Amino acid sequence: MRPSKRVPDQLRTVKIERNVSNHAEGSCMISFGNTRVLCTASVETNLPPWRRGQGVGWVTAEYGMLPRSTGQRMRREATAGKQSGRTQEIQRLIGRSLRAVVDMQALGENQITVDCDVIEADGGTRTAAITGAFIAMSDAVAWMKEREIVGDNVIRDHLAAVSCGVYQGTPVLDLDYDEDSSAETDANFVMTGAGKFVEIQGTAEEEPFSADELQSLIGLAQKGISELVEMQKRVLNGETI
């Protein structure tokens, strides 16, 4: 039995609230169980120097955890004078993932920066951030379309992410912290709405995992992400999740 009493292929309760920021062009608060991430998308015309004058845009991301998003207070990375390797790795993952479903030519010489701030952490912060970042980015693109900054087809597909792992010998979907901290195998999957893989991260924490176990994790990820994409579609159509 999982600590949360969920069955192996069951997501945590997912909640998505759009338009939570009065200032950002796109925003949402996303919750996977007790993990909560604030995602805000900002539209900018100031492209990186190496991207200017090419008629194409850029999508990037930043990620951070608030000091009391975990059981004990963490020091703000700004006070340490540098970001941790983990933070850099996660924000690059978020940026890569978002760019996989954006037509940079259609975006024009504009940049969308998505900030993902972890309010509460209980496992799966990077996957929650990616799933919420897509909602915030979609609303930012809609804001641009309303002002005729861009046309149609900037976003080519939906995008979502979920964690999977082997916990006490059983492949399970959407690990919370209790499972993640003691799982034999931990993996993160990023996929499009069409079911294509953007990125797979997988690590054996104890015993190496087999090809059959990997296939089981892939099946769980496909199921979970299809459910998340359906939620995204409903939310973007104005429903409350």
From TrEMBL:
User: Which residue spans traverse the membrane?
Assistant: none
Is Nucleotide-binding one of the keywords UniProt gives this record?
A: no
MF annotations from Gene Ontology: 3'-5'-RNA exonuclease activity; tRNA binding; tRNA nucleotidyltransferase activity
Under catalytic activity, the entry for this protein gives: tRNA(n+1) + phosphate = tRNA(n) + a ribonucleoside 5'-diphosphate
Domain Exoribonuclease phosphorolytic as annotated: residue spans: 10-140, 160-224
Enumerate the residues binding phosphate: R86, G124, T125, R126
Alphabetized CDD domains for the sequence: RNase_PH_bact (cd11362)
Top enzyme class of this protein? Answer: transferase
Q: Name one GO biological process term.
A: rRNA 3'-end processing
Q: Which InterPro entries match?
A: ExoRNase_PH_dom1, ExoRNase_PH_dom2, ExoRNase_PH_dom2_sf, PNPase/RNase_PH_dom_sf, Ribosomal_Su5_D2-typ_SF, RNase_PH, RNase_PH_bac-type
- Any Pfam family matching the protein: RNase_PH_C
Known EC number(s)?
2.7.7.56
**Which UniProt keywords are given for this protein, alphabetically ordered?**
Nucleotidyltransferase, RNA-binding, rRNA processing, Transferase, tRNA processing, tRNA-binding
Coiled-coil annotated spans:
none
Q: So what family is this one in?
A: Belongs to the RNase PH family.
User: What functional role does this protein have?
Assistant: Phosphorolytic 3'-5' exoribonuclease that plays an important role in tRNA 3'-end maturation. Removes nucleotide residues following the 3'-CCA terminus of tRNAs; can also add nucleotides to the ends of RNA molecules by using nucleoside diphosphates as substrates, but this may not be physiologically important. Probably plays a role in initiation of 16S rRNA degradation (leading to ribosome degradation) during starvation.
Under the heading PANTHER family, the entry gives: EXOSOME COMPLEX COMPONENT, EXOSOME COMPLEX COMPONENT RRP41
Q: What quaternary arrangement does the UniProt entry report?
A: Homohexameric ring arranged as a trimer of dimers.
Record's protein name: Ribonuclease PH
What organism is recorded for this protein?
Maritalea myrionectae
Q: What is the lineage of its organism?
A: Bacteria, Pseudomonadati, Pseudomonadota, Alphaproteobacteria, Hyphomicrobiales
Question: Which gene underlies this protein?
Answer: rph
